[in-house]
Amino acid sequence: MLPDLPTRIQECARDAGFDLCGIAPVRDFRELQVFPAWIATGKHGEMKYMEACDETGDLKRASLARVAPWARSVIVCAINYNTRHPYSTAQTQIENADRGWISRYAWSHEDYHEAVLRRLQQVEANVGALLDALGNWPLATGNLHFRSYVDTGPLIERVYAKYAGIGWIGKNTCIINQKLGSWLFLGVILTSLDFAVYQQTASLPAPDRCGTCTRCIAACPTQAIVAPGELDARLCISYLTIEKRGEIPGDLRPAMGRHVFGCDICQDVCPWNRKAPVTSAPEFEAREGLVNPALEWLAEMQPDEFRQVFRGSPVRRAKLSGLRRNAVIAMANSGNKKFVPTLKKLCEDSDAVVAEHARWAMATLGSGSV
Ligand code: B12
Ligand code: SF4
Ligand code: SF4
Predict the structure, then answer these.
(1) Which residues share a beta bridge with 227?
(2) Fewer CB atoms near the end CB (10 Å): N or C, the chain?
């Protein structure tokens, strides 16, 4: 008799350092049907890569079956990145009202893309060795194939995570696990292994445990959660601080608070994160100076220092210009006039975007005109 392969694969994932692992079949799940309308209504903002289509003109991310016809299953792995530091919504943060907030996921020593991909490749190797040891590959379609992705694959990882039993998709759109909460990075391995014959495969979706709670929707400062489970990325502070280049629309700036990279609010307020355990992965420990960073430091940062401080960090994604722009907005939102001398200098900055935001910040602090 064949061994319980899904369970053995979960062991391979645990051996590689993942906290959770499940397997979903490749299907056009009903959640994917909302994706074309999400794109058509422009909710992805300037994230053009999400519009990628296959040769028939269909959105790649909406149908993995068409883009990777060889793939039969998706092995979804998740790793906890939570650390002991307080949440951005905690009382203690009031004392830090003149400092910035970098999102919890970006404090790490190593960019999560690399940390997770490295582990996925280890899972691939472990599973390969396991199948070799078994002496046959009874479930493979043609040649045995694996392909690992963190973020960049032609699929919406959270939908596959749901059907792999990792967690449910919360009203804040995040995957939440009943025991671990939502401070989870996801990684996926597309494979030609077909587990349909295994009854034990976690092909059933994880049950939704949001119930009547709506805390995340109420707490979102920009009303970016436009319906339960539906995000308008153009309004999301995470998008504005990380992905959006150039000017931030003036009406959104006040609600961005002191966020300089990403946003955790809709997860900080989630009851399922109240007792979220802390990660055991050393690379997700916070780097010195990134929890509640000093705003002047970021706003005046020079290219050399940016490269040095954020080497191997997800923060590089915002680029120096974006990070400085965000720090300037946060200075205005702090309401603290101690930033006026710095802002005055920045009004003349050679980066036109930083200079424009600095003029706005001066006006907001009542020390200049827009
Ligand atoms: C683009 C992107 C973003 C964008 C857009 C986010 C978004 N919600 O779409 C921005 C920059 C805003 C962003 C922010 C964040 N992201 Co992001 N992001 C991605 C990325 C690369 C693609 C996501 C995507 O395809 N979105 C498309 C939309 C349509 O999908 P969706 O929002 O997930 O919606 C699905 C369901 O909610 C459901 N659904 C939606 N509406 C409805 C309505 C009905 C009626 C039904 C039935 C279903 C349904 O179906 C949708 C799919 O069609 C993924 C990695 C990947 N390849 O999947 C990481 C990913 C989702 N991000 C992640 C993280 C950690 C974050 C942040 C926490 C980072 C931060 N602290 O700032 C925030 C969280 C903000 C939030 N509340 O989502 C993690 C999520 C882990 C988790 N536990 O869920 C991922 C999986 C990366 C990873 N590899 O770990 N992200
Ligand atoms: S990450 Fe922040 S801005 Fe985006 S939906 Fe959550 S609370 Fe709103
Ligand atoms: S805050 Fe409430 S509604 Fe939002 S994701 Fe958490 S449990 Fe669900």
Answers:
(1) 230
(2) N
Q: pLDDT tens for residues 240-290?
A: 999 999 999 999 999 999 999 999 999 999 999 999 999 999 999 999 999
CA-based angle 328:50:307, to the nearest 5? 40
User: How far is residue 60 CA from its own chain's centroid?
Assistant: 20
71 lines ligand 2 (CB under 6 A): no
Residue 279 CA to ligand 3 centre (angstroms)? 21
Cα atoms in the 13 Å half-sphere on the side-chain side of 174: 23
Could you tell me the two tokens for 16? 């590689």
268 catalytic residue (yes or no): no
User: Atom 8 of ligand 2 has which residue's CA nearest to it?
Assistant: 220
Strands of 230-360 (E only): list them.
230-231, 259-261
CA distance 38 to 44: 7
In whole angstroms, how far apart are CA 364 and each of 228, 296, 331, 368? 33, 17, 10, 8
User: Which ligand is in closest contact with the Cα of 236?
Assistant: 2
pTM of this prediction?
0.96
Which ranges of 100-149 does DSSP label H, i.e. alpha helix?
112-134
Lowest mean pLDDT among 203-207, 228-232, 306-310: 203-207
Lookup: tokens for 3: 């061994």
pLDDT digits (tens, 9 = 90+) for 54-70: 988 999 999 899 999 99
Q: Is the CB of 205 under 6 A from ligand 1?
A: no
